[in-house]
Prior knowledge:
Alpha-Beta Plaits, 61% helix, Rev_trsase/Diguanyl_cyclase, alpha/beta, Four Helix Bundle (Hemerythrin (Met), subunit A)
Amino acid sequence: MxxxxxxxxxxxxxxxxxxxxxxxxxxxxxxxxxxxxDSWAVAQTLSEYMRLExxxxxxxxxxxxxxxxxxxxxxxxxxxxxxxxxxxxGAFVELDxxxxxxxxxxxxxxDMLDQRLDSLDSQGIKTMLQSMTALDASMTAxxxxxxxxxxxxxxxxxxxxxxxxxxxxxxxxxxxxCGVGLVVLLLHHNSLLDGAHRKMKDLTDNLRxxxxxxxxxxxxxxxxxxxxxxxxxxxxxxxxSDLEARLKTAIAGGPTAVIFLxxxxxxxxxxxxxxxxxxxxxxxxxxxxxxxxSRQGDLICRLGGDEFAILSAGLTDKxxxxxxxxxxxxxSFPYQVSEREIKIGTCVGVAISExxxxxxxxxxxxxxxxxxxxxxxxxxxxxxxxxxxxxxxEKKSFEADLKQAxxxxxxxxxxxxxxxxxxxxxxxxxxxxxxxxxxxxxxxPLEFIPVAENIGLIHExxxxxxxxxxxxxxxxxxxxxxAVNLSPVQxxxxxLIQSVVTILTQSGLDPNRLELEITxxxxxxxxxxxxxxxxxxxxxxxxxxxxxxxxGYSSLGSLRSFPFDKIKIDRSFIRDVTTRxxxxxxxxxxxxxxxxxxxxxxxxxxxxxxxxxxxxQVGCEQVQGYLLGMPAPASRLEHLRQVVNYDxxxxxxxxxxxxTASGRG
Length: 665
């Protein structure tokens, strides 16, 4: 393209130069010939006129000239005169009256000669010659004037040509300069185009690179959206998408979809005691082990927390059960995390697609199977069966009944006496919650208390029990105390202190007469909130007792972390205290530790005189059990009937309105 443009520009320059050359040549030609055209015609007319006179004179003298030759010269002359009447010569003649008059006279003479030539004699010819001779001077002057006039015109034309030449030369020079400028502009334009092309190429490369980065970023975002950040496993979103695809395949006649749902037993304890970094490392190790266990076509997912899932296909119940056992066994092998050996267990719930309408239903079946496996304890596998749905329905019904129990007046507080070992006098009562359902009958606390904790109802129930017990104890003799159990879930509430203070104020009970029992599990998480809560309760004047002492993870360590007022020896030791030396030794040890630390010891579960004698022998200060008194409503306690005027027809459920006692009235 550049070469073609260069050739065109060169041709343009050559053509311009050639135009200038042609103009110069034409100017030269005009200078040579143009000045003689009109003046030559007038001179020729004069010459012909003279020849006509000469021939006519020769004819008159009888010389070698005939009439025809004279006629020829006359015709030529007449033609010349006609030329003087037209064109540039006509314009030249018209410019001067004398010339016009001369031309008229000349015409008249020639016409007369033409008319008389054939009849003229010698005398007539002489007369005509005289007439013609009279015009010689005028004709000569006309020729001279014509020459001068033509010379002037030629000079003017030459001047104009010179001016035109200068104009054309300037134009040609301008064209040449324009051509040069055009070349420069084109070169500059080409340079700009080259630069633009380079920039465009760079931009294209950058866009291609940015497009690649964007594609990679989109892939990363998609990967992040569908994978767990900690373990790199597919997350719940990808799990659901893959499960739906497998279900569609199964419905279309393909292999069945299989879900293995598992969570880690004891993971929360690892996280709480060893820290989240160790917990994260453990999750990564479990994910790695699960990935190695998976078969071709399986999808390993982390659904959240310590919950994992495996999606498979085409397995029978037995194959699924065997694979789940294999997974569970592999997961149970010890892990090395942060130079620590950690051993955990797991339970697995399995669901195999049959006629489930959607992914949610199949996942719910796997969740039910996992729930069933966990209810059997660590290290169990359950494949979903239809009766599990029935048990779930029963569980939901149980939860619904429990939520309505307080409102329906089905809950009641019973009191079991606590007795001084030496005097056998009652020194207080422990408040125990009882549930009497119109259909289920009496529901044991071991059944409904964990459910209340799971569904978040324990705070309302615990507050109601505390308020009821404090209002009741406020009516008792001042020497009697009341003990109320606090659930670990209830203890972690930030509103606990305010709730206790409010209840004490409303009931009028002296804080020294209230004893709150907590289990060792409360102290597993020895954070500032736990110790601060215990300290504030002590500052109010409330007594703090450790319930079920000896059954926790670090009983003696718990005694060091906080100065309890009372230690309650668990009934599991009391049951064998008369038959097993180790049980007796433990009771004796705990009693001695309590005495050394200035803490009151109380043994629960005393059912025989032999057990009573043993705990009395080792120095236990208080006892509690069926031997000394069964739990009963306050209105049926004989010890209190002598002091407090109870209406026999009024039970504890009617003594305190449920809504008022719970603060919702």
